TrEMBL record:
Keywords: Membrane, Transmembrane, Transmembrane helix
Bilayer-crossing regions: 55-71, 78-99, 152-171
Species this chain originates from: Haladaptatus paucihalophilus DX253
Protein name per its UniProtKB record: Metal-dependent hydrolase
Species classification: Archaea, Methanobacteriati, Methanobacteriota, Stenosarchaea group, Halobacteria
Length: 204
């Protein structure tokens, strides 16, 4: 899934706080948004492994949210919904395509790494690849409740996420061609600094 789709999932998860502590909803929503994108900060260093913890995030989120219910304040809500969104991100990556630059080819059997199990979880390919039409459609669907519930900054961020998703979905495959062109022109002694999946796909 696109990072923006994960962010919209995080916003929607944070919105659950409206049912228990509406005054803390803004904190929960922004924490959910941050947690939704956080795992992808490993994009260029062990992507879907370094910061992706489908099991451990889930355990930590359960404990943190239980604590937030017992001691509801901005800090406990922020931690709980951040971890919940990070867990949702890590788990949902298994529903998408494999870890490759051209996941529409269906050649990779690595979706997300489970540190708990010590192995890669294979892709389900329910969403064939990040930026696929169904990925964009999911993002739009997830955005609708937030557009209804909020105005101001949160609504603006949701609209921006949808717009970015649309542009990325249109450019997803052409971007691979650009990457192929660029990597093919990198001096060989510099390839060690390029993520493996780029080199693996484009350098023979």
């Amino acid at each position: 899934m696109m990072a923006t789709t994960h962010a919209l999932i995080g916003v929607l998860l944070g919105s659950a706080s409206l049912f228990v502590a509406p005054e803390l909803a803004p904190v929960a929503v922004f924490a959910g948004l941050a947690g939704g994108v956080f795992p992808d900060f490993d994009l260029y260093s062990g992507h879907r492994k370094t910061l992706h913890f489908p099991v451990y995030y889930s355990i930590a989120a359960t404990a943190a949210l239980a604590g937030a219910m017992l001691v509801p304040n901005p800090w406990t809500f922020a931690l709980g919904f951040f971890l919940l969104a990070a867990a949702a991100h890590s788990v949902s990556d298994a529903f998408g395509g494999g870890l490759e630059l051209k996941p529409w080819l269906g050649q990779s059997e690595r979706a997300v790494y489970s540190h708990f199990h010590g192995q890669w979880i294979p892709p389900r390919r329910w969403i064939r690849y990040d930026g696929a039409p169904e990925d964009f459609a999911l993002g739009v669907t997830l955005a609708v409740p937030s557009l209804v519930l909020y105005d101001g900054t949160i609504q603006t961020l949701v609209v921006l996420a949808v717009m970015i998703s649309g542009v990325y979905a249109l450019l997803r495959k052409p971007l691979v061609n650009i990457a192929e062109w660029l990597v093919g022109r990198i001096p060989s002694h510099m390839l060690a600094y390029v993520p493996d999946r780029f080199v693996g796909d484009f350098v023979q």
